[in-house]
Design goal:
With 99 residues, the protein is mainly α. The protein is 52% helix and 4% strand. The chain contains four helices and two strands. The protein has a two-stranded antiparallel ribbon. Helix 1 packs across helix 2 and helix 3 packs antiparallel against helix 4. The longest helix is centred in the N-terminal third of the chain and has 14 residues. It is flat and about 55 Å long. 17% of the residues are buried.
């Protein structure tokens, strides 16, 4: 199922998601275009659920978080992104039926 947004609505939602996944502070995607393409993909995958989209993108960002350049390495930020993602995780609050 595809979620339909007009361009203005999509960019408002995408800008919000972009900020929530801290892409401006700690870039993961190679360009803004790639980031917005991923946002669109995950919005469609999650049927327009913004919180689920943020969760998925933060989990993606937590997968590879050490950067090495010219012998210098950055700190592992996987835990940081997983903590952020936990704010958006849905929990099943259903009732289990007994035997």
């Amino acid at each position: 199922m595809s979620v339909i947004y007009d361009d203005d609505a999509f960019y408002k939602v995408a800008d919000f998601i972009y900020r929530e996944i801290r892409e401006d502070q700690i870039p993961y995607f190679e360009s803004e275009d790639v980031c917005y393409s991923n946002i669109k993909h995950y919005l469609e995958k999650n049927n327009g659920d913004v919180n689920a989209t943020i969760y998925d993108l933060l989990i993606v960002k937590s997968e590879s978080s050490v950067i090495s350049v010219s012998g210098l390495s950055t700190q592992d930020t996987a835990g940081y992104f997983k903590r952020l993602a936990s704010k958006y995780k849905r929990f099943n609050s259903g009732t289990l039926s007994g035997g």
